[in-house]
Amino acid sequence: MLTSRQRSFFFAESTAGLRRRDVVIAYTLLRIILGINFFNHGFTRIGNIPAFVNSMAEMFQDTFLPLFLVRFTSFFVPIIELIVGFLVIFGLATQVALITGFALMAILMYGVTLLQNWDTATSQLVYCLVFFILVAGNGFNILSVDWFIQRRKPRF
C-alpha cells in the first residue's frame, strides 16, 4: 500500500504538462524494451563466444587495434549485454547497469566508426539516445526492483 506521500509522488502533475504516472509507465516500458534488446543480444551470442570473438578479430584485422585487445573486448561484449539486459529489464541496479551499457556503447561506437560503418554507427546513436533518456530520467524508475528495495529500507 502506498503512503500519501508516495501516492502524491507517483500521481503528481509534471511541469511539462505530462502526467507523472504516464511518464513512469513510458519510462518503465522503454527500460524493459531496451533490456530485452540487450539481453537477447547477449543471450544469442553467449553460447558461442569463441565464434563471436573470431568474427570481431577478423573484422578488425586491418585496423591499428592490437588483436589481443579486440579479442579481449569481444569476449566480454556478450556477457555485459546479457547482464545489463537482465538488470535493466527488472530495474535492478538500474543506474549502474545503464551507465555500464552506455560505456559499452561508447566502445562499440569507437569500433564501428573506426571501420567507417556509418549505418551501424547511426543505429548505435539511437541506442545512445535511449540510454541517455533512461539515465537522465532515473527519477521515474518507480516500477522496478530498485524502487521496491529502496522503499523497504528503514529511514532514520
Automatic annotation (TrEMBL):
Residues 25-114 form the Methylamine utilisation protein MauE domain. It is found in: Membrane. This is DoxX family protein. Keywords: Membrane, Transmembrane, Transmembrane helix. Its main location: membrane. It is a multi-pass membrane protein. One of its GO terms (cellular component) is membrane. It comes from Gloeothece citriformis (strain PCC 7424) (Cyanothece sp. (strain PCC 7424)). InterPro entries: Methylamine_util_MauE. The chain crosses the membrane at residues 24-43, 63-89, 96-118, 124-149. GO terms for biological process: methylamine metabolic process.
